[in-house]
Specification:
Blueprint (H helix, E strand, L loop, with lengths): L2 E3 L8 E3 L11 E5 L6 H10 L4 H21 L4 H6 L3 H11 L6 H10 L16 H17 L9 H11 L7 H12 L11 H15 L5 H5 L10 H17 L12 H17 L36 E2 L15 E5 L2 H12 L4 E3 L1 E3 L3
């Protein structure tokens, strides 16, 4: 909380006005939707939640595979798969956002029937789906809140098709077909929440050309990057994300098994050399943070409280909320325009300044 001090040079004894008190925290928090976040923010979130990164990757890949299989069973378009990013509740929410409506029972029924023979399939009206269907609706509310009610979705497939036509690639060409399938594997990485559609489309097209040894020089030259609002550093980050996925989790991808494992290593070697020669960081941009090493024991008089979550909403007067404060007395309001949120914080902060005066007392 900002404190504004107005003082005059004292000539004798001075005292502070005893009636001053700190105003109560404004009972409102603002959460601004973040369509993109950085790699370090993702890592900080995982660290704060004390999640094992290997376990997180395993569960994420399982969830995406589940979404993809159910999406195919329900004949949903690829754009619904792009929007869904966490199992049944995410697929249910994505169906609403992309206007490909399906009931929660339909999703659960399709997932259940995937494990059975056609003669044993159940209907969506079966009572066994009732409890889980209600649970999905509850999780949907949490997902909408976590996303900041931001329904602005991005589909790299549309941009990918435009790029293919721009560079003279036929729609049924081998490179275009592979690039399209690579775009679905992007959602097994964190690239969709870090990069825009143009960056992802350029990355898929370049990687497809390198894997097939049919490289498109115009795509790799970078002459059109500015026109498509991207950069070489962002494309390189996305390429490395995909290559790491194919190197370590090849069987769980749509494209990985079509190539031998050493093919991805062969493709990565020249990219590593390019990154080294041009000093391109692995993640762009990256803000280094100093972490003190610890041997597992707490140091005396050291604050070991849990750090604030990187995506925690902040109060309308600019203060970060205290642990457990949200949901108790405070309302959380969601905004899509950061400038509007900043302006409101600026106006509200004026009412939370504590002004103090020093004055003389004749003794």
């Amino acid at each position: 909380m900002a404190r504004n001090m107005r003082s005059e040079p004292p000539q004798g004894g001075s005292t502070l006005e005893p009636s001053l008190s700190t105003p109560a925290i404004h009972p409102s928090f603002i959460q601004v939707a973040n369509p993109y976040i950085f790699e370090q923010t993702i890592e900080n979130c995982i660290q704060v939640m004390s999640v094992n990164p290997l376990r997180e990757t395993s569960l994420r890949l399982q969830g995406v595979a589940w979404i993809d299989s159910v999406r195919r069973a329900l004949n949903l378009p690829i754009r619904t798969f792009d929007t869904a990013d966490a199992a049944a509740a995410a697929l249910f929410t994505a169906c609403k956002i992309e206007d490909t409506l399906k009931k929660s029972r339909d999703i659960l029924c399709a997932a259940y029937n995937l494990k059975l023979a056609p003669s044993e399939h159940l209907s969506a009206d079966d009572p066994m789906f009732e409890a889980n269907a209600r649970g999905i609706i509850g999780l949907e509310r949490l997902m909408l809140e976590a996303s900041g009610f931001d329904f602005r979705t991005r589909h790299p497939q549309k941009t990918l098709m435009k790029l293919g036509r721009h560079y003279g690639l036929l729609q049924n060409s081998e490179v275009s077909n592979l690039a399209y399938r690579i775009s679905s594997d992007l959602y097994r990485t964190f690239a969709p929440i870090k990069q825009n559609s143009s960056t992802m489309a350029f990355s898929c097209l370049e990687l497809a050309g390198r894997l097939l040894d049919q490289r498109v020089e115009q795509v790799e030259s970078g002459l059109d990057y500015a026109q498509w609002s991207t950069s070489r550093a962002e494309i390189m980050e996305t390429l490395f994300d995909l290559l790491e996925l194919y190197t370590h989790h090849r069987p769980q991808t749509a494209v990985g098994l079509e190539f031998p494992a050493d093919r991805f290593l062969t493709v990565r070697i020249p990219l590593n050399q390019e990154a080294s020669e041009h000093h391109i960081p692995r993640y762009h941009p990256w803000i280094s943070q100093l972490h003190k090493p610890s041997n597992g024991t707490a140091i005396n008089n050291q604050d070991v409280s849990q750090p604030a979550h990187p995506l925690t909403p902040i109060a309308a007067n600019g203060d970060r909320q205290r642990t457990g404060e949200r949901g108790r007395d405070a309302a959380v309001r969601f905004m899509l325009d950061p400038a509007c949120a900043d302006e409101e914080r600026r106006q509200v902060a004026a009412y939370f300044k504590v002004e103090m005066e020093e004055y003389e007392v004749d003794g």
